[in-house]
Amino acid sequence: MTPAENGDRSARNTRHPLGVRITAGLLGVLCLVLGPVGYIRAISAGSESAAEWYTLGFSVSVGLPLLAAAITTVAGDRRAALWSLALLGWPVVYVVAIHLAAG
Predict the structure, then answer these.
(1) Could you read off the pLDDT of 55-103 as tens digits, one per residue?
(2) How far apart are the first and last CA of the chain?
(3) Where are the strands (E) in the chain, listed by range?
């Protein structure tokens, strides 16, 4: 006899894996878009505001993947957490690409 047939409440999984992956995906897309935008704005900014743009570009490029990895780790989605951590290599890629395109 199952617990539901015995009158007990059925044990349900309260995690929402699709919602967690959508959230991690949105954070990943924001990382992929806003990191290079902040870096390009820092390169083109004057000496007065370049530091702020470098800080914003770096914090978006590193902070959002770490946030996504933390969310997916707590939710128990190891694959999404690994993909989120893989985004930490993205700043190296776009910095090199921007300097090669500008040079």
Answers:
(1) 999 999 999 999 999 999 988 889 999 999 999 999 999 999 999 998 7
(2) 72
(3) none
